[in-house]
Design goal:
Length: 197
Amino acid sequence: MSKTLVIGAAGLLGSAVVAALGEENAIRASRTSSESVDISDRKSLAALIARVGTLEGIVCTGGAARFKPYDQQNDEDWAFCLANKLMGQINVVRMGAKAVRPGGAITLTSGVLAQHPIPGGTMITPVNAGVEAFVRAVAVESLPVRVNAVSPGWVAETLQAMGRDPTGGIPAAEVAQAFLRQQRDGASGSVLLSAKG
């Protein structure tokens, strides 16, 4: 049986997705795992896809972006965000679709800042919105796989790590279930909000 490739598996959401899938059903990929990948590097991503063989699906929770006050942002910050979270995830679809069985799914990660910007998130809001726009746009193309996304709200464990009240967030394990729903049943082009309340 083919497995699901989880890109970003070393992170909070990626490790929760692996736990929800079951270790035996997942291939872990991240900058620090045995299946090493940097999605901002096309060669790194292409090498990973070539190594993994046929997949049940791909979940991408990887892709970095930077919080920074608007008046401190520079061209390198913008280039980093665009190359990582946006173009990196677009390339996951462009390169990964050929490895996923027909009818399988590639599920990307956007985020609540696409709809609800906050100070310091100026670079993240357009990147998240771009991921969602890409998911909707690629759904009208003739791909043999479904492409969708999960838009997590504030994650409880992240809030706690920031020294904030975690009760306003949703546990990572619940967000992982949203990724599994998108993998199993999510329509191509759909963005599933996973947030508290």
